[in-house]
């Protein structure tokens, strides 16, 4: 008997499942309950450790309210694959949701500039950034963007 291992397509599908589930703010338990598997099995699907059967893929697509083709995507398009890879990172969906909720265009540009600055910093400067973030007020008090 030959062992069926996961392929690049399986891993790409798993990234899409995870990203779409997170975008809908669903837990692995909720998805698992809907399709009749445990949350541990959903974890294995999303990590690409286990292959997802076509019937199960159909159930997942229906529950996530997307066509099955969305789970497969265009495997030739690296940009789309990169986007789903990005969305699978911890906090990425929350960050994108928070960014999209900023209504002020200038504030949105400022946040983007801040993030790009943080990305460009060297590791030794991380503590200074953490100190700066700690000093930012977290309440909804007055700000220069009000």
Strand residue percentage: under 5%
Structural class: mainly alpha
Number of strands: 0
Mean pLDDT: 77
Radius of gyration: 19 Å
Distance between the termini: 66 Å
- What is the makeup of the main sheet? none
Residues in helices, as a percent range: 55-70%
Order of helices and strands: HHHHHHHHH
List the uncertain runs. Answer: 75-79, 141-146
SS field, number of helical segments: 9
The general outline is: elongated
Describe this structure in words.
- There is one protein chain.
- This protein has 146 residues and is an all-alpha fold.
- It is built from 9 helices and no strands.
- It has helices at 8-23, 28-35, 39-47, 54-64, 68-72, 78-87, 92-100, 105-120, 126-135.
- Helix 1 packs across helix 6.
Can you tag this structure with a few keywords?
146 residues, mainly alpha, 0% strand
Summarize this, please?
With 146 residues, this protein is an all-alpha fold.
Topology:
Layout: H1 8-23, H2 28-35, H3 39-47, H4 54-64, H5 68-72, H6 78-87, H7 92-100, H8 105-120, H9 126-135
């Amino acid at each position: 008997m030959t062992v069926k291992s996961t392929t690049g397509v399986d891993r790409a599908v798993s990234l899409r499942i995870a990203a779409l589930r997170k975008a809908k703010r669903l837990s692995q338990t909720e998805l698992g309950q809907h399709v009749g598997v445990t949350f541990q099995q959903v974890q294995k699907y999303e990590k690409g450790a286990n292959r997802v059967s076509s019937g199960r893929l159909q159930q997942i697509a229906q529950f996530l309210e997307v066509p099955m083709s969305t789970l497969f995507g265009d495997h030739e398009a690296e940009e789309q694959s990169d986007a789903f890879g990005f969305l699978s990172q911890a906090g990425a969906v929350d960050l994108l949701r928070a960014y999209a909720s900023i209504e002020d265009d200038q504030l949105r540009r400022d946040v983007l500039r801040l993030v790009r600055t943080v990305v460009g910093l060297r590791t030794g400067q991380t503590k200074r950034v953490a100190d700066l973030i700690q000093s930012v007020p977290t309440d909804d008090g007055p700000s220069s963007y009000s």
